[in-house]
Design a protein that fits this description.
CATH topology of the largest domain: Spore Coat Polysaccharide Biosynthesis Protein SpsA, Chain A
Order of helices and strands: HEHEHEHEHEEEEHHEEHHH
CATH architecture of the largest domain: Alpha-Beta Complex
Number of helices: 10
Distance between the termini: 30 Å
Structural class: alpha/beta
Helix content: 25-40%
CATH class of the largest domain: Alpha Beta
Largest sheet: 7 strands, mixed
Number of strands: 10
Radius of gyration: 21 Å
Length: about 300
């Protein structure tokens, strides 16, 4: 958990310039049954030291534990910073888009994300990411390092070194970019991948390596982190099939073909491990080899292309 002490609302707002009711940054936090984690996420938002107003939108998707009660507690303490949205029925399980509930409050020029089971550790995150985007109009997405962590004997511990991947909890972009997000890419099994790829086609993707790593918490209730490998791969394949279909006739088609066949090869390989000895096991192994060779051929072609989005 972040060690910094949470300031009062007045202290937090004392460094802001401009109209405090017109935030420059909107932080979007999606949460569901994150009772063990949500205080860490809220803490990470409230230790931010900024020269501009920001607002945190917490969307609780009808949690059945105490998550909503905790969010309400912080909303009472920080009414000008935290805004809660409390569903009475779970939208995710019904595949209902949550954006109509969030967009009316999403009025910042910049957007940052962090789900309720993850958290930030660097009080400079918002300030530095806004500064970089403001100074570099060619940059579409700015990120920071992250570490993976999980509970071991009741304590949250790191399970790896800091990585520079553009996971959701590390990102910030301009709101104007996301307003053009294709409706055809909404509702995919892994929406984060669709968001990232879209933004990577809009400009440069930059990692601010001097920021302290954000913390991605891996737990059994996570949408992806602790799911069986085959489930993760099935979602990856379905997601990248949809992305490839949308960009089929674009300059990104070759890159997406390589990306998709790589996941298809991994999925076939995983299925071969799970299958009993016999025809299915052999068929999955042959399929894995086939996709691996296709992936390799696409990769060789990609070495001649210089206009692919940074990944």
């Amino acid at each position: 958990m972040p060690a910094d002490k949470i300031p009062t609302q007045a202290q937090l707002m004392s460094t802001w310039t401009g109209n405090p009711d017109k935030p420059l940054v909107t932080v979007i936090c999606l949460t569901y049954n994150h009772e063990r984690f949500i205080r860490n996420a809220l803490h990470g938002f409230l230790i931010q030291r900024t020269t501009f107003p920001f607002r945190v939108i917490v969307h609780d998707d009808a949690s059945t534990d105490q998550t909503a009660a905790i969010v309400r507690e912080y909303e009472r303490r920080f009414p000008r910073i935290i805004r809660g949205i409390y569903q009475t029925e779970n939208l995710y399980s019904r595949k209902i888009d949550r954006s109509p509930y969030i967009k009316p409050l999403q009025d910042g020029e910049f957007i940052a994300w962090c789900e309720g089971d993850d958290y930030w550790t660097d009080p400079r995150k918002l300030e530095e990411q806004v500064r970089y985007l403001s100074d570099h109009p060619e940059c579409a997405l700015v990120c920071q390092p992250h570490i993976n962590a999980e509970y071991v004997n009741g304590r949250l511990v790191s399970v790896g070194l800091a990585k520079e991947r553009a996971l959701t909890l590390t990102r910030m972009c301009r709101r104007s970019a996301m307003e053009h997000f294709p409706p055809e890419l909404k509702g995919l099994p892994i929406g984060d991948s669709a968001h990232f790829f879209f933004l990577s086609t809009q400009g440069r993707v930059i990692h601010l390596s001097d920021l302290s790593p954000a913390v991605r918490v891996m737990h059994d209730g996570g949408v992806m982190s602790k799911q069986p490998r085959i489930v993760q791969l099935e979602k990856q394949v379905a997601t990248w099939q949809s992305i490839k279909r949308y960009y089929e006739d674009s300059r990104y088609s070759l890159f997406l073909s390589e990306k998709l066949t790589r996941f298809q090869a991994e999925k076939a390989k995983a299925l071969s491990y799970e299958a009993r000895p016999g025809f299915r096991k052999v068929a999955h192994r042959v399929q894995a080899i086939y996709y691996r060779l296709r992936s390799l051929s696409y990769r060789l072609l990609l070495t001649r292309a210089a206009d692919m989005p940074d990944q």
